[in-house]
Amino acid sequence: MARKPVLEGGKREEIITAAEQLFFTEGFEKTSVRMILEKVGGEVGMFYHYFKSKEELFDVVADRFFRMYQADFEKMTEQVTAPEEMVSSFLDSYESAMERYSRIEKNMHWTVRLALHERTVAALIPAVQILLVKFGYQGKYPLDIAAGRVTADISAAIHSKSFAHMSNAEKKDVLLSLLKDTLEG
């Protein structure tokens, strides 16, 4: 028997919100479907009406978490016209995102932090591909590899201890250098 189409809102949104809280604080592995349902006052059958698995629910939670960040980054890619402008816009967006993230990160389980980091990097690669084309990438690597490289390089830089202690001008220099290394590749 085919599943009925699932409507948005109602208990589905309550489940997503409860799961987000539990995943972030307890971690994916320690959060059970039963724990989520206890928070919303629901039964197991209700969960499976909305979601096929806990993994599918985690993907929905992660997608909801990223929607705002992806929209901001995509808007940025449309507006910038030069690598220097991109780095400045990125740093402004990064500072704002880190401020929002720091409010929830202190209670976030390490497994969820890791999963969100991996999803962030993967989600940015298509936009970075667009930027590389926009900035005239002519390197020796296929575009997806070049975008993955620059995304990984920037991720490594912004997550390093030394980056946090740099001035804004130093941060811009580092990121611009990484981007130009790939463009000139």
List the helices and strands and how they pair.
Elements: H1 10-26, H2 33-40, H3 44-50, H4 54-79, H5 83-105, H6 110-134, H7 143-158, H8 161-164, H9 168-184
Helix pairs in contact: 1-2, 1-4, 4-5, 4-6, 5-9, 6-7, 7-9
- Count of distinct strands: 0
**β-strand amount:** under 5%
Tally of separate helices: 9
CA-based gyration radius: 20 Å
Q: What is the general shape? A: elongated
Domain module tally: 2
Q: What proportion of the residues is helical, as a percent range? A: over 70%
Largest sheet: none
What structural category arises from helix and sheet content?
A: mainly alpha
What is the straight-line distance between the termini?
A: 54 Å
Q: What order do the helices and strands follow?
A: HHHHHHHHH
Mean pLDDT: 85
Low-confidence stretches: 1-7
Detailed description of the structure:
- By secondary structure, this protein is mainly α.
- It folds into two domains: 10-58, Orthogonal Bundle (Arc Repressor Mutant, subunit A), CATH 1.10.10.60; 65-184.
- It is 77% helix and 0% strand.
- It is built from nine helices and no strands.
- The protein is elongated, with a radius of gyration of 20 Å.
Brief overview, please?
This protein is 77% helix and 0% strand. It is mainly α and 185 residues long.
